[in-house]
Amino acid sequence: MTAAHCGQNDSVQYDGGGDVIGTVHHSESFVDTATIGTNAAGRMWDGWWQNSTFTKPVHGLGSSWVGNWICTSGSRSGALCGFQVTQVGASNLASAKSWPNWPYTVASSHDATYGPGNGDSGGPAFDLTGDQARVIAKGTMSHGYDDAVVPCQGQPSSATRRCYWLFAYSEAYTVFNEPLSALFGAQVITG
Question: What pTM does this model have?
């Protein structure tokens, strides 16, 4: 899974090192979600694309709730934690970028000083199991709110890159359950 605004149907997607990931089969802008046909294992990359060799096993899929603490793992910001879900089923995106009016989950950093940004879209939003050794898939990052800009962390630094302490993600639970599961034809692989 990734964000639909990252690739159109039938486009070939590459990782940060230029290796082919696969071809986009289902890119649906109304949920800002796409699936990429590829061989996959039940693990999630954790960290910045250029120097990360660390993965965590996927324990399963879960829905988000207000107050839920989550982490993100973006290709530019790397792994970031300490975000709390503030709204589930958010449809008022007037202060965000002009994405479709589909219900998103909104989360914010605990102190409004850091967050994911440009280049992190499509990366996972996740929760950790009690032992913090495995991840519970929550969704894929979609967009940040223009009135919540903060300095970016991770690599590479850029004067044009923007990061957000308040951001939205598409719920994986929605994509993997009816009626959308038939549309995407995707499944959660655990490790």
Answer: 0.84
